[in-house]
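Running this now, will post back.
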Amino acid sequence: MKSATVSNHELTPGDLPAANQSIVHDVDKVSTTASNTDGTGTQPVQKSISDWPWGVIVSVLGLVLAGIAYSLGDAYYNAYLEKFSIHSGAFPVDHPTHFVLAVWGGLNATIALQKWLTGHVIKLLIATVACLAYFALPPVVFVGISRFFAKFFPKFFANRKRQIGRANALLDDRPSLRKYLGIVFVIAYLAGSPVWLFLFVPPFISIPSAIGESAGENVATTDKNDFDKGCGHSRAQCYQAMKNGKEIAHGYVIAQSPSRVALYYMGNTSQFSLGDVVLQTLDKAAAEAPSRP
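Update: finished.
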């Protein structure tokens, strides 16, 4: 009678590494899962870009852009009227008009910049090369000097490393000293920050106003040169102010409100109310007639 033999599978020395690897893999998986939990057994949710508070971001960005546009349009309008000796308070404009003027001022500023670049290409190239050399040369010089000292004065660098190591060891041995130096640094930083803010923030904020003011002055100068040609030769339309059928003034409308108007003619600006005054266009032929012999 044959005896039935049961062969139990025993791990051989060659099978041990594979088993160990499986056990280690399972342990690592469990530890990784435990480390990725927030203590409640749930996996932390990683936020993507789509989960950012875009509503708040867009609102803040829109508010900043609106402020920039408003300041640019206001500066453009004030500078244009000031060129003709008119105070902007006499002819106030609403908020939507400020934004329209901002677009017009930005367009004229861009055109003026393009004209300037066309006439100063060589100067711009020289300035660009100088800026690149200014920012690129110091690192190159620093690397060259470092390599020179490392090659010819190796003891200098060894001493520097030794001194840095001693300083770190001193701070590690005296945590109170490290804390004191940290407090001193924070106080110095907080004390110096307002100085830098006062020096750089106001000029940065005033950039849109400076652009609008420059554009307004340039446009006013161009219009003034055209107005000074006279009603018979200018490109702009000339108007005459009539009261009771008689002309009381004529010139170019610089600003107008429902109750007031400002006319410019040959260096003189006149303002008057529009109660009984009627504005009508002046024919160029009629404007040239008095100058004929």
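Residues 1-13, 18-38 have pLDDT under 50 and may be disordered. More later if anyone needs it.
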